[in-house]
Each structure stands twice: as C-alpha cells, then as structure tokens.
Batch of 2 targets.
Target 1
Amino acid sequence: MNTTDITTGTIFNIKRYAIHDGPGIRTTIFLKGCLMACPWCHNPEGIESEPELLHRASLCILCGDCARACPEDAIQADPQGLKIDRERCTMCLKCVEICPSGAMQHVGNKMSVDELMQVILRDRMFYEESGGGVTFSGGEPFLQPKFLNSMLDECKKQGIRTAVDTSCFVETPIFLQLLPKIDLVLFDLKLLDEKPHQRYTGVSNKLINDNITEMDRAGTMSIMRIPLIPGINDDKRHVLGFARIAATMIFLEEVHILPYHDMYREKVAGLGKLDTKLEFKNSGNDALNQLIELLEAEDIKVVVGG
Amino acid sequence: MNKRIAALRKQSVETQPTISPQRAVLMTQFYKSTEGKLLSPVMRRALAFQYLMENKTIRIEDGELIVGERGSRPRVTPTYPEICCHTLEELDVLNSREKVAYTVDDKTKEIYEDMIIPYWYGKTIREKIFDEMTGQWLAAYHAGIFTEFMEQRAPGHTALDDTIYKKGLLGLLQEIQHELEQLDYLTDRTAYEKRDQLHGMAICAGAIIHYAERYSKLATQMAQQADDPFRRQELETIAEICQRVPANPPQSFWEALQAYWFIHVGVITELNTWDAISPGRLDQHLFPFYQAERSAGSLSGEQAKELLSALFIKFNNQPAPPKVGVTAQESGTYNDFALISVGGLTPDGNDATNPVSYLILDVLNELKLVQPHCCIQLSQQNPDRLLKRGLEINKSGFGQPSFFSTEAIVQELTGQGKSMVDARCGGTSGCVESGAFGKENYNLTGYFNLPKVLEITLNNGTDPRTGKRIGIETGDAESFKTFDELYLAFEKQLTYFIDVKVQGNNIIERIYETFMPAPFLSLLIQDCIRSGKDYHAGGARYNTSYIQGVGLGTVTDAFSAIRFHIFEKQTITMKELLMILHENYEGYERIRQLFMNKTPRYGNDDDAADNIMRHIFETFFTAVDGRKNMKGGTYHINLLPTTVHVYFGSITGATSDGRKAGQVLSEGVSPVQGMDRNGPTAVLHSVSKMDHLRTGGTLLNQKFTPQLLANESGIAKIGNLIRTYFKMNGHHIQFNVVTADTLHKAQAEPDKYRDLIVRVAGYSDYFCNLNADLQNEIIARTEHGDLE
C-alpha cells in the first residue's frame, strides 16, 4: 500500500469465506462495541468496547497453566472448572499466551487500517470471482466512525465492495456522512414499539427508525435482517409490522429472517457476565411462515437464516 | 432410471463379489502347454491372451444391452497367478474378512491347491520382485517408508484416446502390417524383436475381435430362443453390433459403447493393471455418434441414457482383483478406479462441453455407483452450467464428480514436454494423475511416507518402532544447533530413500519389460505400433514414472512445531521432544495441545507454516523430478494418498504436530484433519502456495455440510471457490458434503473435525465451536434433511 494509515480499530473477530453477510464470498470484520444490550445477542463479546477475556469452557483442558501464570492470582482452576476474578484481572494476557488449548481468548485486537487491509486483500480473488467484498459487522461498526471511515475509503481505493451490518443506532449525521461510501447496508429490525424496545435492547428505537428512513431516502441499497425471538417479536402484530416496513422501502434488496438460537449462552458465561436467563418461549404463532408469505406477496426476496 | 436399468443395477450392487479360478486355470493350462517352446515372452503373452479370449466363459444376462465381463458373471473377478498367486491362507482371509470380502468356494480352493499353487510357486512376478530387491529396499519397504505398486498388479494408470472409435482394430491391424513391411532386417538389430512385438499385437487384436464374434454368435442363439419379440430384436441387434465392433469403427452410439467395453474387458483380462483402464474423455469420444443419431432421429434421449447407464453398470460389475498384504491395506476397496472425464477443451483449445457431458453427469447422479468415477475437467472456457450441475450432484453427499483444472493439467503436461494438442486431449485418470490419454505410459510406482522420513531423521536412521537401522546416519537430533541443520539431515534422509526406491523401480520396470509384456495394451497406446515396442518397454509416446508423496500436512506441521517451539520460542528442548514422542504424549497432553493450538499450522494462510510446506515440496520435487526411468522417460511427483495415509499412519510413531502414534496422516495436499481453522479460502491460499504445475497431480479434499449447498446461492459460492482455486493453479478439489453420522463422530472426537463448517442460524460456523445443544440441534436438522 502506498499510504500508511495509523488509525486503529478494535476488532473481535475476522471471518473469511463469510457467505451470508451480503453478496458473493466476503470477509466479515467484527468491530467491538455496541450501545445496545439485547439479551439474545449472539455476539456478546462484541458489546463492550474495550478488549475482554473470554474463556471457552468447551476447549479448556483444565491444565491450570493460566492460574499459575496469572500474576494477580485472579484465576482459580479446579476440576469443576475455571473461575476468573474479573475485578483483579489487569488484562496482562499472560493466561492467554500460555493457554495450550486456546480456551483462554483475548477478544478485541487493536488493528490498524493497513493491518486489516492486508487480511482483507488476501481474498481479493475470491471477491472478484464471486461479486463479494468486505462486510463490517459488530458490535456496532458505526461506533468506531473514524476507523470505519478510513476502512471504507481504503476499500474503495482498492476496488473492494463494502457492506456494513448495523443496528442503525447511530447519530444521524455520522450515519449520513458514511452512507455514500457503503455499497450495501444490512440493518436489524427488532421491535416495533418504543417501550419494549427500550426494555429489551436498552435504547429507544426512534433514532433507529429515523435512520432507516433517511437511508432509504438517500438511495442506499439495503438488506433487512429480523432476528425472530420467540415470545418477543414473533406475534402477529410484529409480523405485519415488519412486512409493512419492508414493503415501503424502495432500495431494500432482501429480507433475512434469522431464527433464534441460544449459542451465545456459553460465551456470556465465558465473559464472566450474568446470563439474563431469559427463556424465550414460542408464542405459538408460526411467524416464520407468515412473514415469508407476506413478504413474498410483496415480491420481496426472503432468505431464512440469511 | 427405467425398470431394466434398475434391475441390472440391483444385480450389480447386491451381488457379493466372488473369486473365479477360471482365468488362473486357463493361464496354467496355456503355460504348461507352451513349456519349453522357443517363444519370446511377448509371443507367449499374446498367445496366452488369445487362449483366454477364446476359452473364457461368455454370458449375456437378462436385459443386458452392453455385453462382456472380466469374470464369468457380474461381480466375479478372476485372478492373475502369473503376477501374484494367492495362497490358500490368503484365499481364506479374502473369504472371511469383515470388510471388502470376496467369496471363495471350496471348489476354487481345491483347484488352487491341486493345480494353481503347485504350478506358479516360484514363478510369479511378485516373487521375482522380492527376490531381486536389495536389503536396503526391503528394510525401507517393511518399515513403511514407501509402498510398491507393481508387486501385485501390473503397470497401468492409463486412459484411452479416440483411436479405437476412429480406426477400429482392423485399422490398427493395417498399421501393424505397414510397420511389419517397413522392418529393416539388414541394419536394424532390433528388427526381429519388433517383428515379434508387432505379431503379438496383431494376435491380440484378432483375439478381441474373435471374442466379440463369440458374443455375436451367442446373441444370435439366444435371439432364436427368446420368447419375447422385443428382447429377440434386441439380441439380434447385439449380435450385429458384436459382429462389427471393435473390428470396425463404430457407426452408432450403441456400437461406440460396446466397442469401448470390449476393449476395456481386453485390457483388464490381459493383466490386472492398476486402475483398470479409463475411457478418458468419454463425452468427446461419444459425441459424434450421439449427435449423428440424434439428428437422424435414430436415437432418443432416453435410449442414449439407457445405453450409457448399461455401460456404467458394467464398470460396477468388475470388483478390483483382490490383493493381499500391504497392498490390501493401502487399497482395501472393490473399486478399480476407472475414471470418466467430462468437459475440458477440444484439441484446438475451445470449450469441449457437449450434451453428452451432461448426459454422463445425469447417469452418474441417477445410478450412484461406487464405480466408474466421474470428474469434471473444468476449463475457464467451460460454462458455469457444467460446474453447477457437478455441484448439485455433490450435494447428495457422495463426493462426485470431482473437479480438475484443465488449464493446470495442460500446463503440467506441456511442462513435462508433451505437445499442446496431446496435452489438451489428455486429462486425469486413477485418482488425480495427469496424462496424455492414449499416448502415455504414466506409472504410479508407490507412495512415499514423508512424516516417517522425519521420524527416521529424528532417530538418526533408526526406525523407533522396530529398533532397526533402515536409513542413513544423519546425526543425533539433539546435536542440531539450528532448524536448518535438522532440515538438511531430513533432506539427506529423504534423498537416500528416494534413491533406494528408484533403484527398486528400475529393476521392477525391467522385470515387467522382460517377463511380462502387454501386447494388447500396447496395441491401444500410441506409438507402440510405430516403434514396435511394448507398453512396458518404452513403446508409448511418453513414459512417465511417478512417486506419490503422502502426509505433506502432517510433516509440515511437525516441522513447524519443532521450529516454533524448539528453535524459536524454546518452549521445549529436542531431548524433551524425543522423549514426549517416545511416550506418545502420555502425560504430556498440555504439550500436545500446544502443538495443535499454539503453533503455525498449514492450511490457515499463515506463511510461517506454508513456507515450510513449500520447502518440503521443493525437497521432494528435487529428489524425484527429472530422474530417468528405464523406458526412456522421466520421473515426476504426485501428491495423493488413496487410503494409504491410514496404513502409513499405522506404522508411524507420534509426530510433533500433536498426532499420536498409529493415527492417520494428513491426506493428499490437504491440511491435517481439523487444523485448518480459517475457512476454505485460507485453505485454498495455503494449498496453492505449492507449485501444482510441476506435479502430475495433487489431491485436495474439502468438507461441507449439505446446508451449504442447499440453495442456488450456496452452490454458486462453492463454484466461485473452485474457479478461484483453479485461477491460482490448483489441480484438483473434491467435496465431502457430510451427514449426521459424521457430525456425531465430530462430537465424539472434536479434534479431528475442527475444520468442519456448518450452517448455524444467521451465519455459518465451525461445528466444534458450538455448544453441545446447538450441535445436537444441527444434527437433528441434517437428519431431517436426509429424510426429505
């Protein structure tokens, strides 16, 4: 690369051969930090903006190396499992370094634009062959606007198409400023009404709705993604509401319906966070098929699992 | 498939393979009757072939459209006592072993005891080979450094071009006559040998024509007795066809298929050639007949499909000749590895895809037989439709067709000195081996165990499994100050074993040339007629010997761990490593985890590991490539394992990639099982860092769950992967689209399945990274999919 961009971002995962985050074969970059706190979030390690320690119990062989390596004595390893005293942890990462099985993980690497571009460019041939590119996901990628902006510029310079996967909970000026640089926006719709939205996600949906409207007005190609959470948004009213919003959007390309799963729970535990223990019970409504039917009646392409 | 095909398929699939002593008896009778006669080996072999084709049992099964079998009935295989004569104990093993059993009845055993074994004892090629091998060769062979293809089966690994369809055997007989007339007895001291060779080939041509005529007569007889007028007419047609082909060039689609099949039966009856023989570019060969008949209206699409299906079933009717000992372990299968290629380029370099390409794929998909194998020889010029059709068939999970890059094959072959047109008319046969179809003797001579060479190096020439010194002394491993010193020792050890292997090969090649000429196969491969030389004596236009490297991923990762942990990070010492390997990681699980999880591993697009792979590739390449074989040709390398990575693994101790003693090695050029964790694009990048174009074939396996191919978009993206891999000069790729059964195993042994990608909810992920509940949920989904 000709220029050196020293802007750094906090990245918690990079997925190559991402095939569900936009067209073609893509590399998805997960930017850390999100202001919402949806209890069903399947990337709970993306919520905190600061780097975290994640312990994957399923990979742990309980060798105790981490406990011995910890200068703060913050880790206790016994045959039942591992306990981390997060208060004492200074994030020195000695445990991550020594862990032989890779169970102890550091989520949230600082990467510069150049470093990240090198990873992205590795799969350029695959993007070109398939019409793919790079997707910035999260977390909420707009929470690192300077970094995102630099990445979008650099991708454009390199001729790589971009997508951003966002909650749209972003200050509108920032959102509108970056939109023209993005080829495709993937956005979430979770709850229709402000109060439940506030209750479950921690924030109002007013800003989100405004941004979605602005985005479509600006002519940005988009994909709507609906995480279908049993008992939360799979009732008839939500189904109708989602379909209605989709039908009014001019530049909407597809709708992805994401059925609920609970694989996030191991990660929540591994981050030392309290599981809300919320049980999401099916409301008995066949929301999936109703939604598919309604959307297809409007000639909107639907992908389940998106 | 229609009723007839369903019935023939059922018979082929459900009949238990059986050993028939008939060929052995005929061969023994013939050899006894010619004992002491002044016959050159080639004349003796030609007359033996004639005797076989005259006397072997012929039958036409109910409803058959294509006729001729290697054995007396479908799923019956003869034996080849002149190459390797089974003992009574071996026949018992074959009869009773749990997997891949062959029925051997008491009568057969009696015949073997009374006639076959007493005659052939001490006279077989196998015994001759082992008698002639040096102590060094035997030591390396028994330690599992390499295998030897030719100790139980004759050289083969070749495929046909379009000669038999264009000239017929009468055309070849004319060429033989022409060459006989040109012989120069005045100044050419080889003229007499050439005459014998040409006479031998002529006898074989006559023998196969006569064999076809026997079928013609049988069909006529059966027609006369047939009650069903429809079947009567079919039998009459079969009689006419067998009267015409393979003597004359075929005139119809049916005749073309029957002509090929007689030739195929001839080759696999003459000798037990490796990989039988392959039809090669069957869509190209058949298309002229298909097109002519379709436009004339004399062949419907359904008829063409039925006839082609009948040919496919014929392949499946031929279980591989049963092997014994090491060779049985490396290839415990009924499969005889005949491969049909579709797609690719025309001789003048254009897209060769035609309607028969799709017809072949349809039949492959409908019949789902173990053999023949099919591959798509994908060119940049071939349409995406061909690629998509191939992937749709893969979706059902049986790993076919496989995909080869035509551009890679053409560059490999031209790089070896073949003409552009010969290269374009070539392709791959066997597993993944490139060859100039109809013009090349390209011989796989044996697998070569790369990780075992490292093990021997670490033990200064001694095999720790047996305590025997089998290699050269390259220094005490603890004395190596740097990684380069260790690597140099490995290089020396490897070159030594290649020397030993090639010396053995040279002797074996001469044994086949001298004692076991193949005049019938010679007839079919250009330029054996023109040169008056046998296929085994360098008569073919091109003559290539391959040695196939195995365990590239394992040896790369083993080296990577040594470099990273001993020489760079100094996590452990060489002394400790040797002790840990000796202890097979017992009590050192922590270190094993470190090797697996905290070491640069091949297959992740990580240059730290991939550069080691390239280095090993170059070492192996340099040790083998360019050596001269006994047929005037050259050695090249291949990287493929068939199933030998299981056998090689079983005799290789613990390796420093975290692999325990006895476990399988990595296969082909694929990364170590479960160790590629950055997805398929990273794998393809890693693998394409080696120079495939300087090999004669590499094998790459990739594993996907059915969900990834469930819709158009998923299929298109896997198509993109293939196209991109081939742009990076990859040679071959094939897919395992896995089932719930595999996922269960993945749960039980996650370390082996770390690279398994599954579709989760809104995304895909590594199966082993999911919690148990979700895994179970996905398993349930997959089974549901299977039921649909």
Target 2
Amino acid sequence: MSVPVRIALLGCGTEYSGVMPEIYEAARQVEAEVFYPDVTLADVRAAGKGFGLDVHSADLRLMIARAEALVAGRTEADAVFVATCFRCAEAAIVRNELRRYIHEQSRLPVVSYSFTERTTAGTLLTRMEALVTIARRRALLARERQEGLTMGLDSGSATTKAIIMKDNEVIGTGWRPTTQVQQSADEVIELALAESGVRRSEIEAVGVTGYGRFLLGNAIGADLIQEELTVNSKGAVFLADRQHGFATVIDIGGMDNKAITVQDGIPGVFTMGGICAGASGRFLEMTSKRLGVDITELGPLAMKGMGGNVSMNSYCIVFGTQSLVNALAAGNSPEDVAAAACHSVAEQVYEQQLQEVDIREPVIMVGGTSLISGLVHAMGELLQTEILVPPHSQFIGAVGSALLASGFVRKG
Amino acid sequence: MAKVYIYPGTSLILSDLVARFGHRPLGSALAVREKVQAPGLDSPPLQITPEDPKKGLRFAAVEVPSGVRGRMSLHGPQIEEAEAGIIIRDADLAFGCMGCARTNELVQFLLHQRGIPLLELDYPRSDEEGIRFVASIREFLEGLPGGAPA
Amino acid sequence: MSEAVAAGGAPAHRAGVAPGSATKYVFIDSPELTAADLALRAYEIAPGVQIKETCFGLMINGPEDEVERLVAGIRELDPDRIFVKDRGFPPGDERRCRANLGGARPGFYGHENEMRLVRYISSGLRALRDPKKADLLRAKPKENDEPLSVERLSAIIEES
C-alpha cells in the first residue's frame, strides 16, 4: 500500500455533529489520513493577533493557529480540509478567510465545507478524492498535450459523454442522457467510435470520471478513474488554451455545481454542491419543458428577453418552479421568463458557491449548461467579466479524462 | 452534597475546588464519559452520532448549527440536573466542548434561567486575586445543601 | 501509528471500556514533588488502580470508589499544589491519543491554560489556613469593572 496522503483537518464542530466518522470514512476510501496539525498554546494565544481576525470561539482560534502552522511549514501536510458548521456566521468568516490565506500563502490544495449532522462520507468523497489526486498525481496533472489514441468517459448524473482523442485533437464524440450507467456508456462509446472511425481495440488508454466512474471504470478496466474536479479543471484549461497561470472554472451540472480556482491547470481551491437543484441545470431543464422549447433553444430565447422584468428566485426548486408558473400566468413573455430563469440560476451559484473560491480571470464555463447562452450571459453580468466557453465544453469531463489517460499510453 | 455545574465545563480549577469542598462537579468530562462508555456506539472520537445534534433540539432550534446542538446534547442535561453553578466569566481559552462561543452563551443563559444559586467570577491573575477567588468559592459552596467547611 | 490510522480510518479504540470505571487527571504544580513521586505513592495506596505517569502528573483509572480513595490519599502529599479533575476517556484511548490525532486534543490546551494560573489557587488554598489573611478572605472578588466615570477621570487628570 502506498503512503497515505496526509490531510490536515481544520475544523470546528465536527466532533459534536457526528460527522467525524464520515470524514474518516471518506479519507479511508481514498487512502488518505486525516490529522490535526500540532500547535502550542502560545500559538493559539497569538493566533488572533497574528492573523488579524479576533474571534470569540476558542476552537476557531485553534483552527487559525493550525492554519498558520501549516503555512509556516511547522507542520507538514499534503492537503487541507476546512470544515465548520453550516449556518454559523462566525465560523463561515474564519473558514473563508483561512481557505483564502492557505491558498495564497502555500501550495497546499484546500477545500472548505460547511456540514450538518446529515453530511455523509459519500458527500465528502469527491472532495477528499480531489485533494488526494492533487497531492499524489501532480506529475500526471502536469500533462498539457494529449498523445496517442485515447478515450475519455464522463458518467454524469444527467448525461453520459464519450470523447476519442488522437494526437491532441478530438476526433469523436458521443452524448446520451444517463439511464443505466453501463448501458448509457456503451451507447456513447459506440457513437464516439463511429464518428472517429476507430475500433475499440485500437484505443490505447481509457480515462473515466463522473458519478458513475467507479462502477464504469472497474467494469471496462479503465486506466484512470478520477473525480471530476481535477479532470474538469484540466479539460477546461486545455480546451480554452489557458494551461498556464490562473483561471476559474465553473461547471453548473445536472445535480450539483463545481467552482474551481485553477493554477497551471491544477485546482487550488474548489467547491462542489449547492443548496438545492434550483441552482443547477435541472431547473433550466424544467424551465424549458414548461416553456415548451428544447433545452438547446432556451439560451437563445433568454438572450432576447429581459430577466429584470420577471421576479424569480430558484433558491429552492419547488419555489422556483412556482414563481416560473406565476410569471407565465401573469402574462410575461417566454423570452423574459427564460432570461429570468437563467439569471436566477447564475445568481444562486454566485451567491452560494462563488464566494467559496477566488475568482481569477479568465472565467471558463464548461459542462452542458455552458451551451445555454443566456446562462453564460447572466453569469458574465454578475461577475463583470467576459466568460470563455471553449469548444466541446459540454464534453469537459470526457476531454479531461482522454487527455490525462494518455499518461498511460505505452510508448513504442 | 450538591451537584454544581461548572463553567467552563472543562475547567481543572473549578472541578478540583468543587470536589475538594465536598460537592459534585458537573462538567464536560462526565458527559463525555457517559458517551464513551456507552456500549454499541462506534462514532469516534466522542461517540457523538448524528442523533445527538437532534437531541440538542431540546435546547436550540433547528436553524442553530449542528455543532452547537451537539454540544448542547452534552451540556443541556447537566444544566437541568444542576443544583448550583459556578461561572468563570473570562474563560476565553476553553476548547473542545467549550470551544464554541455561541454554545457558551446559550449555556450561561440557560444556567441563569434555571434560577439556581450561581457564583460568577473571573480567573485570578495574582496571589491576592487567587485568595479571594478560592475564598469566595468556598463560601458559596458552604452555603449549598450539604456544604460543610473543608 | 495504529493499523487503523495507517489505513486512513478512524482511530481505533478499546472495545467495551468498563462502564462504571472512572478516570481522573492528577496535576501537580510543585517544585518538590515529581510525577514519579506521585506514581510511587499512588501504587502504595491503590495497587488495583491503573496509573499512568504523564508530563503534568498522573492519569488514574479504575473503579470509582477506588479512584476516589486514591485521590484522597494523593492529595495529602501536597494538598495546595495537587489538582484533580475527571476525564471522559480512559488512559491511552486511541480516540483521544495525540499519537493518532497528529496534534493535541483540544482539552490539552485548556489544561495548559489553567495550569498557568493554579499557583494563584495554591495561594488561595494556603490562605484559608492563615489567620493573617482573614481580611483578604472576606473581600469579594471584584465584580465586572464599571467604566470609569467622567467625574473620576477628570479628578485623576487633575491629580496628575
């Protein structure tokens, strides 16, 4: 067994919320070990003054002291997990400032999370896995060119995608709504093979990502099974040709969203999830159904409308749908309603998730929802920047997998 | 012998003085001991499971963070059981069970709500303050049922 | 490092910690008495109690009445400078062991903090037997300081 990746836990409330076993379990599944950075009482007493944030809760002061020990190199770690109670304002300030501080002052990958007593190992797994990937696979993640003939699969919650790449070019694509993980994958593989004109046996390496990655990856004997945070980051900067320097990757998915601050293609800070599907592609899918248009038409429709004319809040998908119905009943135009729906989703992602990462330009939007022009426009307005949507952006996970899988192609 | 809730619940000084002067200190250690000795639980380190923050709903509403409610599941029953209490007001460096300022505010509020005899004081920072500190704790404890000069 | 932790899992713990057993910390703040002296005396008083020497004193574990008897006996060695408190976990429990957690358990810092102050408590305990300190004993600890009144402040300024 390899040496476990050491993840420093900076937490407040974890031991009193019943989530420690879940944190340990998620770490165990990715062969990592969670530990508390060692500090002295003098460090804790100085923490408030040195860091400049004078909080009342002693456990938060302890968190600050531990973060300072990590940044100063007094304690060694491979990655940092910052976890505090959901709905605690004092802890949220500390969590965000520490996440920023560690990101700026060290090379340690960091993820922050606010938990409730219902948080499970499953929820934490992808985040822990990403930390481990970044710590353990830096060499693999440094890859900038795809080589050989490789296939990437993205088994997502809403759709399954396949990409075939040869010599740094995409030569085949496949896309299907996800029904059964294996069956949907078989279909998209066939589509991609047909488009590229190559046979399955010619593929030199396969990479798999997405929710179904373990099931699918093990079934087809994939060379690389990797979570979507690192894979999508890699795919995004590759497709957008921004492999060096900073970038921010936003992926509004079918079930949850990812926001990732990337440096040289490697995630530094990331967040995943959201409060409700109201802030995801699912709400836009519902909107298009209600408007009687295909999801591909929703973006252009929204671009013709004025979102400000309609009040819509998709904080919760049920209330969001209610305001959608009300808006139409009140006689608002489909264009305005489409624009309002796009704005609402962008706003939810902005308010709930983008505060947890550092927005660095360029901002790259990927995933299926990046094809909804109205959504990209709304996000650009909120962030006051022009957003990049690279070609094949809807295949981002599959492209990232195909790119990284070429590290497994045997030369000669 | 009276049951005396000590704040901070992790205080060595209060735990020692209350026991030394013949009473039973109710602090975090006893609540944690009950948890870690409970058979059939496997939720290290403190054996607090997701059920405990739910038990904490008796003391704090659902919009209160889980860490506060989980801590209250330890402190709350002891506050209810206490016949008296001693509070150190400037206990800024109490960690773990007492590491959350919001929980600590609630604990002190509930102690006041109980209407039981309470003694509130600051940590001593000189010999003179130490003398007054110990004397006033002894005097307070002697006035409780079952209290007698040590 | 334990096997469980090496595998990334939660720190293992001893199954079935005997219900009804009690663990106490014995802290010593004395220039004349070491943890080893304490341990020696403790073994004499209660051979059936588990005794562990630590950097601050002892950790003792056993049936509650035995532990109480031991505490009473140990206190006699230096009543004003020995301090005792309950502990939730038994000695060496891996759930709370520094070796497994990577860093000190949070409670450690709390003890460290109070140990800076126990010398004042020792003074207080000594004073209880000292008739010359009677006046001080009667003085109440100071209440929350009220802000200085404007009148008093201007008086101070004028005096200076």
